[in-house]
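Example record used in the benchmark description.
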Amino acid sequence: MTEKALPRHVAIIMDGNGRWAKKHRIKIALGHRRGVETLRDIIRESSDIGIEVLTLYAFSTENWSRSPEEVEALMGLLLEFFISEIDELDEKNVCIRILGEKSALPLPQQEALMKAENRTKENTGLQLNIAINYGSRPEIIRAVKTIAEKVRQGKLDIDRIDESTMSEALYTAGQPDVDLLIRTSGEQRLSNFLLWQCAYAEFTFPTVLWPDFTLKEYHAALDDYMHRDRRFGGRKE
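Model output (structure tokens):
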């Protein structure tokens, strides 16, 4: 694969940890832990091959409805990940950005996320977005309120609001829109993820569960993307 043909922005819905755990007759928490191992591999590979932005759906606003035991396990893994991986991520020049409302998270997780963002904010390599307590509709509402407040204060002319204005009010401000969205486990829906940013994204839905999503599977998804004809609503003569 050539660097020019790679997607600039890859987004992944890491689906299937629970089903993987059920398949192997182990606790769901262990399925999530196995999924973190896959996560590490994908981040490293994305950095190494020159992906510009990688966005990972780690915990949605709807995930709070899961059992207290599963939520607690996910929060624990989140904290563990940032404590164990931050040194390597910083060394690899990865810039971490958290998408979502951090204030609703437990205090230790909030602190770990803020430290990771602050420590890596000047890094110029892979931009790693981790969506935590994230929902795209709340993100869009937040952006609209931000824009409306600028109009109210006289800082923005309402007639000058355009797509760029909206994009710059989102969590992903300054980043390119999603080129390729991957959702593992075979499910074929967005689940309130990056609705604005995925306007012209290419989608792929490998049936493999996230803990079994290997680098071979990842490269297959990238290769499939690179062979697609992207027209962005136009038509090639």
